[in-house]
Amino acid sequence: MHRTLSKKLKSLVVLGLAGTALSGCATMPGSSVPAGSPITQAEAQQGAQYHPQFVSEFGGKVEGPQATYVESVGQKIAVQSGLANSSSAFEVTLLNSSVNNAFAVPGGYVYVTRQLVGLMNNEAELAGVLGHEVGHVAARHSARRQQAAQQNQLLGVLGQVLSSVVLGDSALGRLGQEISSTVPQLATLKYSRGQELQADELGVEYLASAGYDPHAMATVLESLAAQNALDASLKGQESTMPEWASTHPDPASRVSTALQLAGNMTGATNRNQFLNHIDGLMYGDDPKQGVIEGRTFIHPVLRFEFTAPQGFYMVNGTTAVSISGDSGQGQLSTAQFNGNLETYIRNVFSAIGGDQTQLAPQTLQRTTVNGLPAAYGMARANSGQQNVDVTVFAYDFGNGKAFHFATITPAGRSSVFQSMFQSMHRIGAQEAGSVTPRRIDVFTAQRGDTVQTISSRMAFDNAREQRFRVLNGLSANDQLMPGQQYKLVVRQN
Known about the structure:
Its cofactor is Zn(2+). One of its GO terms (biological process) is proteolysis involved in protein catabolic process. By secondary structure, this protein is α+β, with helices and mostly antiparallel strands. Helices cover 37% and strands 20% of the residues. The chain folds into three domains: 8-282, no CATH class; 287-433, Mog1/PsbP, alpha/beta/alpha sandwich (Protein Transport Mog1p, Chain A), CATH 3.40.1000.10; 446-491, no CATH class. Helix 8 packs parallel to helix 10 (251-262). The longest helix has 20 residues, at 147-166.
């Protein structure tokens, strides 16, 4: 979560992207030019216009040798599309985001998060992911629309995202649909199953023409499937589609189709070259954006900490922190603050309601939480099938800064978040300085090394072996091979 945060509902959409790479891949509205045609001037201008906003929304751009390497691989695969004759026509950006995502926009702009790169195990997989995204652009999967029609469609999609991903498929989600009208147009569109399969096909084609092993498309899909299943397990959820993300259309057929497309073709994977380049890459949350440790969120830059209720899990986005559980959902973010908490809270309620729903706190009370001046308000609304309680709990951090929780629960159950509201507190310089990032450490397996002994060094408090296996694309029965390189996640010294 950055020092300067965008509007709450905009951040909900961003948070909803977590775990949707290669399924809910993002794109800006494209043009109606024929598929396979070169980049047009209008597309180039459009991509350039939105590029800074995408970079900002996804945590900023990673700089340095790792980013340069990702850019070179991306340009090599993108030029296979025929969208341009020169690889320099494509701008490939490694994003400082801890969610697994990749996307491309018309105009030659291609993006991948460092978290997704860290999940990969060879250069061919990186090329396959980026080739898939470029394939969406080359196939012109998003057609040019009139601005008004485009906005209406985007808002409809955003309502679905809020409902199914952030707020849950419930009455709470339907309230999310009502408030989605306040979300800007910078959003992601899900592709149809046919479009995803076509992008996979193009990605495999690009891999082969660039000299890579086309089977990498299938192996990276499998790694993403395993990561999604592990994430669901760690959150106490069941994964009904263990072979791929539950949000993805027909996952099994996509993996098998990718294998069929690759057939007997062979090519380079450049495993060691890839691993050597990503050695030291940050993994998980960037302390500059705050970190999640179990149920506790710590922001060493903004100097605060809070703990989610038992049974809830958090997702740290670049603009807000989401808190989700069976009995409610919420997020922590910020807004413009003039020094008056009551006015601040009323403005947050107004933003939640948007133009269509007049939402205002029915109660407003001041309090103090761990020395912080605070205030809270609650409103009861009807989602169509049941009453829900919307609570905004805000804190004055001084110097013109305020942060607030906004939560939605079934009516009468808002107290589930009370412990979280009361846990917010400042942290000192020593505690802030103790927060260090996790990084990928590439090592060479020696004789006698086992998955069990090596995975014990993973910088996590739980599921170390499962995390290690997913990170390295190992099945439940795979063992380490002496002389081969693998990845660990360690704390930076």
